[in-house]
Amino acid sequence: MAAEVLDTKGLNCPLPILKARKALSVLQAGQVLEVLATDPGSMADFEAFCRQTGCELMESGEDDGVYRFVIKNV
Amino acid sequence: MSAQTDLANAKSMSIIVTKGTLDWAYPPFILATTAAAMDVKVSMYFTFYGLPLLLKKLDLKVSPLGNAAMKMPMGGGHVGMPNMLAMLPGATAGTSKMMKNLMKQKGVAPLEDLRDAAVDLKVDMIACQMTMDLFEYSLDDMIAGPRLGGAATYMESALAADINLFI
User: How much is the pLDDT for B1?
Assistant: First the structure.
């Protein structure tokens, strides 16, 4: 269960990543953030973001134009 | 993740920011904020026409004059503006307004918001002292955060950086 859900629908690059980073920075390590986005680039971007920061991308997917990412904080 | 990048072994990036039009202002700030969000230590060096991007009040503009690659989406196609029209009074203001409306419509952040994010993420901003003198600005004209420096100050951050960009 996500500790917080972040809705970035309608926002374009780089806002979903910047807002996710901000949200993660106030969560504890191990807590989970769920991000919703409509930016098609967010799929590749959140994968890269998690690889580089060490956060765990637990789930990612797209449903009806809305991308969803479940990220475990480091 | 901590609120800001403070890793002794973090990767680093330096960007020289030389252009201050509405379009060219974006790439350095998008990259700087995203890199900082990914725990990269970022330094931005503002010189010549990039320096006014640090002014408290921004009024960014883009001109279609001499910009043959600039095509705006219109009625399902893309439309450019001939130079003969682009040179008329109001063409730059009108194009800038159109671009800002388009950005808003597409969820692109206002440049001011990205700049605020850069400050929040502790991006090291250096205002070129020579350009400050040349164009008669003082730090009082600028947002809080930037420090003053010259080429040697830039070199010090660039020599330590993994990525150096000139935009």
Answer: 77
State mean pLDDT over B74-88. Answer: 94
| pLDDT above 70: percentage of residues in chain A | 100
Strand ranges (DSSP E) for chain B?
A: 12-17, 41-46, 72-74, 77-79, 124-128, 147-149, 163-166
Contact A12 B1 (CB under 8 A): no
SS (H, E, C) B33-79: HHHHHCCCEEEEEECHHHHHHHECCCCCCCCCCCCCCCCEEECCEEE
Which of A12, A22, A25 faces B106 most closely, judged by CB atoms? A12
Mean per-residue pLDDT, A45-72: 96
A13 catalytic per annotation: yes
Is the pTM value of this prediction over 0.90? yes
Element (H, E) at A70: strand A66-72
Is residue B33 less than 8 Å (CB to CB) from chain A?
A: yes
Partner-chain contact A49 B37, CB within 8 Å: yes
